[in-house]
Write a structure and sequence with these properties.
The chain contains four helices and five strands; from the N terminus they run E-E-H-H-H-E-E-H-E. By secondary structure, the chain is of the alpha+beta class. The longest helix is centred in the middle third of the chain and has 25 residues, at 59-83.
């Protein structure tokens, strides 16, 4: 077991270990930092989808979980690159888009809030078709 004492810029000081004796302290620190970024990206997606915590004990499930984390980070990086902004800002802008339900004795209307200029730019840069303003109209006879 190789143990290194490293200071990761902006993240504090850590004591990291690995079984790979060939890795440099810098490679170990970068790998750890990337792992934290992947886990943060996956946590963001889990919160967005309202998923609960998952604990794995089987190797194939662990590998699948890591793959999903990697895919989540990949999606975040693609969005950041295409939009030219941070994931935090993209997510904050898109979370302002809401679905409003108008319900009274005459029926139901589901309508999205009007897209802001920033939301339109994000969707355009990601090649995503904006949602229809009125999603559903169900008026009683």
């Amino acid at each position: 077991m190789k143990v290194v004492d490293v200071c990761i810029f902006g993240m504090g000081k850590y004591l990291l270990s690995t079984r790979d004796q060939q890795l440099s302290a810098e490679d170990i620190a970068l790998g750890y930092k990337q792992l934290m970024e992947v886990e943060t990206a996956f946590r963001t997606f889990k919160n967005t989808l309202s998923l609960r915590a998952v604990y794995h004990s089987k190797d194939d499930r662990i590998r699948t979980h890591v793959l999903l984390c990697w895919l989540a980070l990949l999606l975040v990086r693609i969005a950041e690159t295409e939009v030219g902004d941070t994931w935090h800002r993209i997510r904050r802008q898109m979370q302002q888009l809401n679905l409003i339900e108008f319900l009274d004795k005459n029926g139901l209307i589901l309508q999205h809030t009007e897209l802001t200029a920033d939301q339109c730019n994000i969707m355009k840069n990601l090649d995503i078709k904006p949602p229809q303003r009125v999603l559903k109209v169900n008026l009683g006879a």
